[in-house]
Write a structure and sequence with these properties.
With 183 residues, this protein is α/β, with parallel strands linked by helices. It is built from five helices and eight strands. A six-stranded parallel beta sheet has the order 3-2-1-4-5-8. It has a two-stranded antiparallel ribbon with strand order 6-7.
Length: 183
Amino acid sequence: MTQALMIIDVQNDYFPDGKYPLNNTEQTLQKTLKLQNYFRQKQLPIIYIQHINPDPNAVFFVNNSFGSQLHAKLLPIIKPNEMIIQKAYPNSFYQTQLQEKLERLGIKQLVICGMMSHMCVDSTTRCAFELNYQPILIHDACTTRDLDFNGNIILSQDVHNSFMSALMRFSKIMSCEVFIQTT
């Protein structure tokens, strides 16, 4: 089965000096780099998803800004096995060439990681399932932030855990280490 790694929105604005920082970004980045190295060693495709906010009043992921760039530790992109797909919506498949590229590469399974667990990771994982890409979600290579709902602060770890548990119907969920050891 041909696998590809999908790294969603690991961009500068999500890190501590960015315009929309998440929690645990360094730990998430380290797990992501392990996955990137694993896929590079196996010479399997890696797709980097980059969110560019089309709103002219956007606060973060502004086009051509430092914050919208992929984190420097993910670079350089190695051709031809690696590519960047830009998106403007949470679902990485929506109004992008992602599915066309995956079909051209013969990808049957997506291994997914990235940022934010409750938004783009969730939306993309559900769509990958619906498109029959048999997703594997690497839970410790994803992160999010605290959320406010109805005057209550929901801690990022609770948000993350809730979304990972909800995605169990749509993907296999594994740690980075278990994935690397068992595949």
